[in-house]
Amino acid sequence: MEFTAKQIAELIQGRIEGDENAVVNTFAKIEEGKKGAISFLSNPKYTHYVYDTESSVVLIDEEVKLEKPTNATLIRVKNAYECVAKLLQMYDAMKPKKSGIDPLAFISPKAKVGENCYIGAFAYIGDGVEIGDGCQIYPHAVIYDNAKVGNNCIIYPNVSIYHDCRLGNNVTIHSGSVIGADGFGFAPTPDGFDKIPQIGIVTIEDNVEIGANTCIDRSTMGSTYIRKGAKLDNLIQVAHNAEVGQNTVMAAQVGIAGSTKVGNWCMFGGQVGIAGHLNIADGTQVGAQAGITNSIKKAEAPILGSPAIDAKAYMKSYAVFRRLPDIYQQLSALKKEVEQLKSK
Fold first, then answer.
1. pLDDT at 108
2. How far is CA 171 from CA 84, 113, 175, 245, 343, in A?
3. What is residue 296's DSSP assignment?
4. Angle between helices 5-12 and 80-94 (to 10 degrees)
5. pLDDT bucket at 42, cuts 50 / 70 / 90
6. N or C: which end of the chain has fewer CB within 10 A?
7. Coil, strand, or helix at residue 341?
8. Residues 304, 284 contacting (CB under 8 angstroms)
9. Which runs of E-coded beta strand occur in 105-234?
10. How confident is the model at residue 324 (pLDDT cuts 50, 70, 90)?
11. Lowest mean pLDDT among 26-35, 99-108, 252-261, 308-317
């Protein structure tokens, strides 16, 4: 597939500087540009690459001022990062989708599969499963009895969706993820721990994407929820009866303990840990490796640290903390001086 700079500019409402007939057929990072590629520049740290890149077209923010001419054709836009994301989405949508059911797939006679679906070799579709139209079920994916999958979902290899779980439309689940394994529920007894049966389900709403090797546990009763538009990275753990709010994003290795409710439009850095039975307000922004032990009631508050506190308070505290060795030496010296004065 080939596009000219003029065609691309029309798609993203951009302004061309250079050859409007420059042709592109692939994407490349600006520092690895090559002829026929389109790149983008949004981070000022990479500005020096624009002068020498071999990419044919570069998307660039309107406000960026260049010190010298470039070889590449420029398309100026309000937000280059958003525009390249839009172009990548369009490019991905144009790629041909697999279709048909591989003869090596197992589909229960009691299951229902919608139109224009792809089901790969060694995929397993259990009794009572319902799969909507346009779904892509890759090899070795397992969908257990009575699970429901909406339209246009993508289930990558080795995903396991346990019985009775519910997926909405346009859900993507990457390889190795487990949806609906038992929640970590055990009751202590004099002889050990008795398992508490987990009889609930997992509900994943529309337009959710879940990264590789992420686990979302079924609830003890009721449902664990991943709300509409949420995006979860790889290696995330969502425990039983938890809820992740609409359009919330989480980076890798976040862990959410049981029965915690995370609000809408929250952002979590990598390795954030959240204790159980908490409520996290809408728009909360959590820095990497923070440990949340109490509910967050103030909306859109940035927090850091473990236990997590207000981000500004944390930075002030850290400024003192990293000077503690010097402060300790000063206190020791002062203590000696005071003792000497007392002895006199």
1. 98
2. 22, 16, 13, 15, 76
3. B
4. 110
5. confident
6. C
7. helix
8. no
9. 106-107, 112-113, 118-119, 124-125, 130-131, 136-137, 142-143, 148-149, 154-155, 160-161, 166-167, 172-173, 178-181, 186-189, 192-195, 201-204, 209-210, 215-217, 223-226, 231-232
10. confident
11. 308-317
Max CA pair span of the chain = 97
Averaged pLDDT for residues 281-291? 96
* Type of residue found at 111: A
What residue has token string 């798609």? 11
How much is the pLDDT for 317? Answer: 86
What is the tens place of the pLDDT at every residue in 291-313? 999 999 999 999 999 888 888 88
Residue 90, pLDDT above cutoff 90: no
Q: Sign of dihedral through CA atoms 39, 45, 47, 51?
A: negative
Residue 240 annotated in active site: yes
Q: How confident is the model at residue 319 (pLDDT cuts 50, 70, 90)?
A: confident
Cα gap 154→166, rounded to integer Å: 14
What does the block give as tokens for 247?
């359009």
Residue carrying structure tokens 């709403």? 205
C-alpha to C-alpha distance for 27 and 169, rounded to whole angstroms: 29
Of the residues 163, 174, 240, 277, which is catalytic? 240
Cα distance between residue 140 and residue 150, in whole Å: 19
DSSP-based three-state secondary structure for 324: helix
Q: 3-class secondary structure for 222-270? A: CEEEECCCCEECCCCEECCCCEECCCCEECCCCEECCCCEECCCCEECC
CA distance 123 to 23: 41
CB 173 within 8 A of CB 155: yes
Q: Tell me whether strands 261-262 and 243-244 are parallel, antiparallel or unpaired.
A: parallel
Query: What is the pTM assigned to this prediction?
Result: 0.85
> Average of pLDDT values for 162-181?
98
